């Protein structure tokens, strides 16, 4: 039995960037094995056995080889951002106060959110007479009232509502 253990490699910004495989060319099972599938496609496997030495193959120190490790780098499998979440340290500002928006991208429910660069986002305020927003996501309170800031990353957007009060 050839046994291949495959694990995804992930980068905090890009998501999946490749995989690592442990290839055991000669694996002898001790008995039964369990294989479980989930709706998300994740599998769980339980098996017991022993890797057997590969005939005629040795390491540099003359020890027998039982497995090979193969690293696969593939940036083509980078998962796309499917949703964004924007947040600010505060949503109630006094006139002339500022707050910088942070933006996070989601690659799906099975993956950790990633921090997005504000340079890759577009920020707009629906009421620039109440609160303005710069290209880098800094909101400045101008006058009392409520303003909504829209954050757009590619074709995905999120909104934040800021309340401005007198100083």
Keywords:
single chain; mainly beta; four-stranded mixed sheet; three-stranded antiparallel sheet
What does this entry look like structurally?
This protein is an all-beta fold and 167 residues long. 0% of the residues lie in helices and 56% in strands. It has no helices and 15 strands. The strands form five sheets. Strands 7-15-14-11 form a four-stranded mixed sheet, with no helix packed on it. A three-stranded antiparallel sheet has the order 1-2-5, with no helix packed on it. Strand 9 (102-106) and strand 10 form a beta hairpin. The relative contact order is 0.17.
Would you kindly provide a brief summary of this structure?
With 167 residues, the protein is mainly beta.
Distance between the termini: 74 Å
Would you report the number of β strands?
15
Question: With helices defined by DSSP (H or I, 4 residues minimum), what is the helix count?
Answer: 0
Order of helices and strands: EEEEEEEEEEEEEEE
Largest sheet entry: 4 strands, mixed
Q: State the helical fraction.
A: under 10%
What share of the residues does DSSP label as strand, in percent?
Answer: over 45%
Assembly type: single chain
Mean pLDDT: 87
Low-confidence stretches are none
* Spatial strand arrangement across the major sheet: 7-15-14-11
- Which term fits the overall shape? elongated
Structural class by secondary-structure content: mainly beta
Rg estimate, integer Å: 26 Å
């Amino acid at each position: 039995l050839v046994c291949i253990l495959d694990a995804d490699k992930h980068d905090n910004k890009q998501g999946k960037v490749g995989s690592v495989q442990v290839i055991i060319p000669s694996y002898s099972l001790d008995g039964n094995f369990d294989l479980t599938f989930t709706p998300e496609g994740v599998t769980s496997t339980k098996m017991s056995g022993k890797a057997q030495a590969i005939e005629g193959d040795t390491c540099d120190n003359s020890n027998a080889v039982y497995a090979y490790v193969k690293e696969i780098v593939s940036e083509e499998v980078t998962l796309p951002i499917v949703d964004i979440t924007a947040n600010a340290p505060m949503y109630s500002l006094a006139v002339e106060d500022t707050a910088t928006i942070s933006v996070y991208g989601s690659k799906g429910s099975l993956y950790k959110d990633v921090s997005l660069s504000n340079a890759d986002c577009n920020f707009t305020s629906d009421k620039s007479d109440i609160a303005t927003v710069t290209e880098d996501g800094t909101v400045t309170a101008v006058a009392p009232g409520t303003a909504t800031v829209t954050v757009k990353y590619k074709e995905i957007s999120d909104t934040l509502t800021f309340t401005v009060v007198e100083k």
